[in-house]
Amino acid sequence: MRAAIVTLCGVLAVAPAWAGPAEDARALYARFVAAQNAHDFDAVRATLLDDDRFLWITNGLALRGPDAAITRMRGFHANQVWRIDPVWTRAQAIAPAAGIIVLHVPLVLTVGPAAAPDRYRILVSALCVQAPQGWRIAALFTTDANPDGWSD
């Protein structure tokens, strides 16, 4: 029993140094963010699992497949300003199984008219999987950050 608990703790441990697969997932998510900030939807799509099982939960909606995700993202990018800034110092990763990383990344989303964009604190959990083409994002779960749990 003790060995099972030790093993489980090791599998679910936070990756403090971003080693191995956790670093691969972080790099994948960084490419996803950079592509969005560049409004490069082909590059965004290349980071997503190319499968109808891809899932994005956002604003109370469940979107299936990368095409649905890209369509929704294009609508967001109609704003004059759209910028994602991950807070990497608060990011965490767990590896529940081989070839799977759950990456939790707080971020600041700046969006709106150029004269007065809004800033939102968002929490994103990305399910990253090792696919035949390399690491891909298989699911995204986004929610607003609790203002009591995140101070500057």
Give the helix/strand layout.
Layout: H1 2-11, H2 21-37, H3 41-47, E1 55-58, E2 61-64, H4 66-76, E3 81-86, E4 92-97, E5 100-112, E6 118-131, E7 134-144
Helix pairs in contact: 2-3
Describe this structure in words.
- This protein is of the alpha+beta class and 152 residues long.
- It has one domain: Nuclear Transport Factor 2, Chain: A (Roll).
- The protein has four helices and seven strands; from the N terminus they run αααββαβββββ.
- The chain has helices at residues 2-11, 21-37, 41-47, 66-76, and strands at residues 55-58, 61-64, 81-86, 92-97, 100-112, 118-131, 134-144.
- Strands 1, 2, 3, 4, 5, 6 and 7 form a seven-stranded mixed β-sheet that branches.
- It is globular, with a radius of gyration of 16 Å.
- The N and C termini lie far apart (42 Å).
- Would you give the CATH topology? Nuclear Transport Factor 2, Chain: A
Q: Termini, distance in Å?
A: 42 Å
So what's the CATH class? Alpha Beta
Number of helices: 4
Helix content: 25-40%
Strand content: 35-45%
Architecture (CATH level 2) name: Roll
Number of domains: 1
Average pLDDT, rounded to a whole number, is 87
What is the β-strand count?
Answer: 7
Please state the CA-atom Rg, rounded to the nearest Å. Answer: 16 Å
Would you identify the regions where 5 or more consecutive residues have pLDDT less than 50? 1-16
Helix/strand-derived class?
alpha+beta
Biggest sheet architecture? 7 strands, mixed
Give the overall form.
globular
> Element order, helices and strands?
HHHEEHEEEEE
